[in-house]
Amino acid sequence: MKFAHYETGEFFDEMFCDRACPRASARALIQVIDDLPDGELLRRQRAAERVLLTLGITFNVYGDSAGAERIFPFDLVPRIVSAAEWHGIERGLKQRIHALNAFIDDVYHDQKIIKDRVVPGDILQSARSFRSQCIGMKPPRGIWCHITGTDLVRDRDGQIYVLEDNLRCPSGVSYVLGNRAVMKRTFPKIFESTRIRPVDDYPHRLRDMLEYLAPSSVESPRVVVLTPGIYNSAYFEHSFLAQQMGVELVEGRDLVVSDGYVWMRTTQGFERVDVIYRRIDDDFLDPKTFRSDSALGVPGLMAVYKAGRVALANAPGTGVADDKVIYAFVPKIVKYYLGEEVILPNVPTYVCSDASERKYVLENLSTLVLKTANESGGYGMLVGPHSTRAEQEEFARRIEAAPRDYIAQPTLSLSRVPTIVDGAFQGRHVDLRPYILYGKDIFVLPGGLTRVALRKGSLVVNSSQGGGSKDTWVLADDRGEHEVDHVEPGR
C-alpha cells in the first residue's frame, strides 16, 4: 500500500496539505509506510487487531439484541499533532476546565452568573443534570470536575473547535492506552526515531489525582473504582483502569455506610474507603438522595460525602456543565470568571429555547445538525444533509414540543485522516477527545482518543454508531522540554 493514489478531497487532511505534499509532522511516518513491502501494512493491521482481541479491548452496545461484546475497531494509521498545535490545544483546555469548575461551584452556591444575567436562570433551572441536592455542597479542594473528556473537531478551514464537554463519566481513555501499546509493537522503529510524547503514565497520574482528594487526616488513602457492573458499555475500561492503578474495582453491593464512613467488604472484613472514582451517573449513586429505586449505588453515600469523610470523582452535580445548552454559553462563562477570551472556540450553536434562534433552526433543518441537550454516544441526533424529509418533520415536532431540549449547529466538514479501507488508503472523518485531570494542577494527556467514522461520508464517530479509533501522536518540541515515548528493550 502506498500513498501515491490517496485523495485528500475537499476536506482538511491531518497528514497531507494536498495529495503530493505531506505535512511536516507526518513525513517520517509516511516514508516508513511507503517503504514497506507490498502487503506488509495489511499484515501489521491484522496483527494489531489480534493483539487488541487478546487484550480484550471491547465495548457493549446498548440495545444490541445479541448483547455481545465487540472489539473496538482500530486503524493503524495514526493522527499526528505537532508540538506547536498541541501547545495551543493544551492552553485552551486548561482555560476551559478552570472556568467550568468555577461555573459549577457558583451555580451550587451564590449563582452570581445567573444574577448578573450572563446565563439565563431558566436555562439553569431546567437543566436535567442540575442537582438541587448539591446546593451548598463543598467538594474536596474545591474541585468538581476531576476527569473531563472534551471533544474537539477541525473544520475545513483548519480551525479547531470544541464540539462538547463531557464532565459526568467520560469514557475512552483505556482505548488510548491500548492503542498506544499496539502501535509500539507494530512500529517500534518509529518510536525509536520520532519524538512522540508518552501516554502510559495516565493511570499513575489518575491515581495521584484521586489520592489528592482524600480527607487530609488520611495518610494512605484507599481508592476504589465504582462500576455499575459487567453489562455497562464501558465495563472493560472500569476494570482496566482499576487494574492499572492497582486499586479495587467494586460495585455498589460491595460498599456499605456505617458509623459515618464508607466501608468495602473484603475477605478480611470491612476496610475503610477514602476516595471513589465513580463510573455511575448521579441518579443511581445513592438511593437515599437521588433515585430511590437504584440498586447500583450505596445507600447513605452522600451523607458521608457531605461530611467530608469520603471523596467522589467526579463530584455529584458536575453534569450541569455537560448540558449542551449550557455549552453554548461557555465563551461567556470563560470571560465572566477568568476575564479572558476563549482560546478554543465553540462550534456556532443555536439554542432552540430562544424564539428567534428556534425559528431559524426550523427553517434550516436540512442543513443543520440537531442534538438533544442531554444525550450522548451519537444518539438523539439529526444530521440535516443526510436526513429524510420525514425525519426533519419529526424533529420539528420534537423541537416545538420541548424547545429547551435541543440545540442546532452548522454541519462542519470534519477533517480527515488516511484510513485503511478495502486494502487502500481512504480519507475518513475524525474528532479528538483529550482527557484532562484536575487535581493539584490541571494535566492534559498529550493526545487523546481519535475517533474515526469508518463509514464512507459519515460524520458520526461514536463506537455505538459504527466508529473506530486511531492512536494520536503528539510530537515533542525540538528543545526537549517533554518526555518522549519509547519502546521496551528488545522490541
Q: What does this entry look like structurally?
A:
This protein has 491 residues and is α+β, with helices and mostly antiparallel strands. It contains 14 helices and 24 strands. Strands 5-24-23-20-19 form a five-stranded mixed β-sheet. It has a four-stranded antiparallel β-sheet with strand order 7-6-21-22. The chain has a four-stranded parallel β-sheet with strand order 9-8-13-14. The longest helix has 25 residues, at 83-107.
Secondary structure topology:
Layout: E1 16-18, E2 21-22, H1 27-35, H2 40-55, E3 58-60, E4 69-71, E5 74-81, H3 83-107, H4 112-115, H5 121-125, E6 147-154, E7 160-166, H6 173-186, H7 188-193, H8 202-212, E8 223-226, H9 235-245, E9 248-250, E10 255-258, E11 261-266, E12 269-273, E13 275-278, H10 301-306, E14 311-313, H11 324-327, H12 330-338, E15 350-351, H13 355-363, E16 368-372, E17 381-383, H14 389-401, E18 406-410, E19 416-421, E20 424-433, E21 435-438, E22 442-444, E23 449-453, E24 467-474
Parallel strand pairs: 5-24, 8-9, 8-13, 13-14
Antiparallel strand pairs: 1-2, 3-4, 6-7, 6-21, 10-11, 11-12, 15-18, 16-17, 16-18, 19-20, 20-23, 21-22, 23-24
Helix pairs in contact: 2-6, 3-12
Structure characteristics:
491 residues, alpha+beta, five-stranded mixed beta sheet, 14 helices
What is the end-to-end distance?
Answer: 24 Å
Report the sheet-strand fraction. 15-25%
Shape: globular
Q: Can you list the strand order of the major beta sheet?
A: 5-24-23-20-19
Total helical elements? 14
How many strands appear in the DSSP assignment? 24
